[in-house]
Design a protein that fits this description.
The protein is built from three helices and eleven strands. By secondary structure, the protein is of the alpha+beta class. This is Double zinc ribbon.
């Protein structure tokens, strides 16, 4: 058959009962669905199969033969349906003479330039896009010029900060008492009951004399 243009982006939605095709814009992929074209052979075969299920015999054999006829005729029927679908869909797209793309007129066609927006961008849209990009870049520059950590004392030893309550292990962000159990956050000093040396909290044995420190 003769060459048919407008064939790059389409999806075949056909089934045993007919033909249907979805065509997509080359730029944004918005689509147009062609009308469903019923297959007379496919529908007749389907009816024969349904009748054959009920009555069997001759009707079942006729349905089987119809299936072969449908398969034999599918090529020409599909080509004709596809040609009709292309002719129906083409008015819903615009053909760019510069790049050859078929695009939707609603979003991707520059009517004033008679080219797709990839080849001839809409200057008003581009201006809005550029303004937004520049605004973001300026926001980054402005943020860099402001001291975002002015209240952070880098001279204070970080190890002095308490991150968990020594009694219930709840996370804390500051203060003198735990917001969960109410106990003081400063760990009580513990000394060895035998030699008096300072011990770590919850130490079970003295690190100097080895004396057990209780439960």
């Amino acid at each position: 058959m003769a060459m048919i243009p407008f064939t790059r982006n389409y999806t075949d939605r056909s089934n045993n009962f007919g033909f249907q095709f979805e065509f997509q814009c080359d730029k944004c992929r918005n689509g147009h669905m062609s009308p469903f074209i019923a297959s007379k052979v496919g529908m007749a075969t389907g009816l024969l199969k349904a009748a054959g299920t009920l009555f069997g015999g001759t009707l079942s054999r006729a349905a089987y033969a119809g299936q072969h006829v449908k398969d034999a005729l599918r090529g020409n029927a599909w080509d004709e349906a596809y040609g009709e679908a292309v002719a129906e869909a083409k008015p819903h797209f615009r053909h760019c003479s510069r790049c050859g793309h078929w695009v939707c007129p609603q979003a991707c066609w520059n009517e004033a330039r008679e080219l797709c927006e990839d080849c001839a961008p809409d200057l008003h849209e581009e201006a809005a896009h550029i303004q937004a990009r520049v605004a973001v870049e300026q926001a980054w520059d402005k943020a860099r010029k402001v001291d975002q950590v002015a209240s952070l004392d880098m001279k204070a030893p970080r190890s002095a900060a308490v991150s968990a309550c020594p009694h219930c292990q709840a996370r804390i962000s500051g203060g003198k008492f735990c917001s969960e159990c109410g106990k003081p956050l400063a760990a009580a000093k513990v000394n060895c009951t035998e030699c008096g040396v300072a011990l770590k909290p919850r130490a079970r044995f003295c690190s100097e004399c080895g004396t057990p420190q209780g439960p």
